[in-house]
Design a protein that fits this description.
The chain is mainly alpha-helical. The chain contains twelve helices and six strands.
């Protein structure tokens, strides 16, 4: 992710963010080239410590594709978000070309894997908990029957089972497994431990999201209604989705991501009955390593 906006702080974050906010909307994309680059990006991430060559190849082709898009958009006078954002990069001012390329890569590639993990956790656990799935389906049907305007409110309502289902999935599959390293400004005593000033600190997000002090003794289990029991103020330091405190605001697409998770879940639950197929190998981020695969049955 290089110098992507999600890794920046303070004024650097704000300057790059200004260029990405206006065009952050849906447009047609160069699908097949992006698909090929996505596969190359995945390969680069897995091999980064061993095969620097694949990383260099990805970065070179990614730079070439974006330069071609910008050149063609300017030549054809197209309305193109990439070209619009690119107007803001200048090595001597707010945003370098590396900042630009890294942030686009964060949006298009890195966040796909994160989103897939959250959705996998959601579908797997709904399949393993048919009573929750049935209750959610009833809730969806009730809100949809009230009209399109009410359904739009449903998607942003934080008091629904749908919201709790997504929050619970993100609790068990946080967007980042570890926080970005940050340095303490002064001496601290935390949980009986002495932390000297200028100590680099990293938080294990999954462990934080399961700590009994916030979530109770069943913190490792899937139970969406726990969000009815935990006080909102306890989530400030006990729940990490996109980061904590100021860091949580650096994610460009966090609000859009929540909407995508909800819309995808609604589409799946209202069209299919999700069933556990049997015990299969479990990926990281699920409730446990013995969680079952999922079968979709058309309703």
């Amino acid at each position: 992710m290089g110098t992507a906006v999600g890794l920046r702080y303070g004024d650097e974050w704000r300057k790059i963010r200004l260029h990405f906010d206006p065009p952050f909307k849906f447009h047609e994309a160069l699908y097949w080239q992006l698909l090929e680059l996505s596969q190359l990006h995945d390969q680069a991430v897995h091999d980064i410590l061993i095969f620097r060559k694949s990383v260099d190849k990805f970065l070179s082709e990614w730079r070439g594709l974006n330069r071609a898009v910008i050149h063609n958009a300017r030549g054809g006078k197209w309305d193109c978000p990439v070209e619009e954002i690119a107007r803001g990069f200048d090595p001597l001012t707010d945003m370098t070309e590396e900042d630009f390329l890294s942030t686009l890569g964060e949006v298009l590639f890195a966040n796909v894997d994160v989103s897939a993990s959250v959705l996998s956790t959601t579908m797997t656990n709904l399949a393993a908990n048919p009573s929750i799935q049935t209750e959610l389906r009833s809730e969806i049907n009730k809100w949809k029957s009230q009209g399109e305007e009410d359904f739009s409110k449903y998607l942003t309502n934080t008091g629904t089972l749908l919201h709790r289902v997504i929050m619970e999935s993100m609790r068990l599959s946080p967007a980042f497994w570890f926080s970005m390293p940050e340095t303490t400004g002064e001496i601290k005593q935390i949980g009986g431990y002495h932390v000297p000033a200028n100590t680099t600190v990293i938080i294990d997000n999954r462990r934080l999201n399961e700590e009994a002090v916030t979530w109770g003794d069943d913190g490792a289990q899937y139970r969406p209604d726990r969000f009815l029991e935990v006080a909102p103020q306890a989530l400030r330091c006990g729940f990490m989705r996109y980061g904590t405190s100021a860091a949580s605001g650096r994610c460009l697409g966090k609000h859009l991501a929540d909407l995508i998770f909800k819309l995808t879940t609604v589409a799946a639950v209202e069209s299919f009955r999700l069933e556990s197929l049997g015990v299969g190998e479990k990926q990281l981020g699920f409730q446990n390593r013995d969680a079952p695969d999922v079968r979709l049955i058309k309703i």
